[in-house]
């Protein structure tokens, strides 16, 4: 979405008249925002099986907020998911920065309704230039670029940018143009960084991993090297955009930005663009007391481009810009201030996202997580947190022999799973007896046959839409991949185009079905089944109700049916004696591997986290508390666990450490569910509703040691003092819960029953509770 400007860019001073005009540049209408979001949230519910917001209680309910979200895995879906989560969970409306090239047609109309701010990006206006470029002296003068057959005086401009091509799955480098020396010579602001960029500009092989030349005695490029192709982009003036954002934040609004600069399908965070830091520092430079806070948001998807996938939107701890950075920014040290603030944003985003160097490593990390949580029903946010901690541990200790060995063993085990074409959680059927396997197989086949009655009609109706969305999304992914320097397969645009095409094409298809139905009724009253008094318009309207309803029912039945269908293969393998033996041996191999993974995590965990034992997410399966619940064989799509609990996100910069809490609270798991005692199952005033999703129920608690979390013993009730103490705690918790309800209903915003928050009011509330 929003792209960077130069790190040293200055937010220009603008007159009062210009500020007033800027305020009205991208207005937001609350009722239009809510209506549009409510309407298109239906698409989110249809495309995703589950979108779980985590840590939304951290978002301030008032005051200016700059939301920094990453990774940007879906071109337009990310923005819709973020806005929906913020409105539902925190009642905040946010203006997103959107690429100016996208502000056309339906997307442009929708973005204007949502108060989005269009931003011109240099890469969107980059065009191939003629000739080749290279570094004539990379050792002594790495900022001088020379061309062969170029015409920099006509095609480039000072303040513009040069873009090098991507290669071998790596994104190309961009550099700012500082000075044009002639048609074949140009000066850039900084030396090119990275091995790929240096290789493209010198053709030399004597480069280390950071792109530094290992043979500095050799001054020029490789002998006979002519250079590399490139693109040029003009200078883009962002002063109006910046001022509009400054005004919105200073007026207490919210602005959201995806600081990576554009969507991508990589497994790690891209370098953050400087624009996010300039927005924060520029706002505070004009109004240091506006109270601006920065909130990191992790957009964590499981197969982001696939229909009916899952997502966890995680809100990190908000933090403020340190005063010393603002002083640096206002005292001509802008580059240093921007760089340090970008580092803070990077660290805060790393605490709410999962990053891995490549896709294979990410798959291995997730395989280790599945082995580690064997026998436990793990909430979806906990799955994300476990993946993050394992990824951090791998990045720090990847050269440790124990890590190398366990990763090699997991890779071999994963290869055997793929050979048998089964999922990790499906190996549980290997312990079942043959009669049980046969009965289970027949029972599930019968369920699929019954479900197919509800699936087939809707599947037939929606097939044209499925085919069209698939074809167009794949084509758009190829186009995006060809025009991008950071994408790997272009999957980041697939979800967006699936939704857009379905939204446009499905009404056309249903309208065609309704016309056919009306025509059939007009010609022979639908084979005589429709009485004469029923009008054609009634049939047409009824068709618009019945056909979408059939499709939606098919979607729900098909979702369950696909889960059951995926569970049939391991049952069939268990019946075959040859494959049954392989399945059993693989299950035994898995048991050994589980012990190995747990042992390595228990050994290395304390080296990374000093409070490893106190804040562990999963109890040691061989030494910890038993956990309730177990992994089911069906309904576990793609090897991920169902359910979603509430777990506190790791602290962002300037947040308190857990060791600052009391000794008794350290034994309580870091989970939102325990924010008050009334949320614990045994103390809840009413049982959890069965209408809630399983994810919410799983996070409600309900017993000691639930989810593997050690809970310290409660106050002893063998004395009157102990009983009074426990009663007092329960009354305080009930009071706190009542206050939370009042805040949600709007009767109280400051958390006190009495307007002045006096001690008398507190005592009176406790007595009444």
From TrEMBL:
UniProt entry tagged with the keyword Chloroplast: no
GO biological process, one term: phospholipid biosynthetic process
Keywords linked to the UniProt accession: Membrane, Transmembrane, Transmembrane helix
TM region(s), chain numbering: 448-468, 499-521, 533-555
Lineage: Eukaryota, Fungi, Dikarya, Ascomycota, Pezizomycotina
Name of this protein: Phospholipid/glycerol acyltransferase domain-containing protein
Extent of Polar residues compositional bias: 662-676
An example molecular function term from Gene Ontology annotations: glycerone-phosphate O-acyltransferase activity
InterPro entries hit by this protein: GPAT/DAPAT, Plipid/glycerol_acylTrfase
PANTHER family in the record: GLYCEROL-3-PHOSPHATE O-ACYLTRANSFERASE 1
Residues of the Phospholipid/glycerol acyltransferase domain: 66-302
Start and end residues of each stretch annotated as Disordered: 619-707, 720-769
Organism whose genome encodes this protein: Microdochium trichocladiopsis
Pfam families referenced in this protein's UniProt entry, alphabetically: Acyltransferase
Ranges of compositional bias, category Basic and acidic residues: 720-739
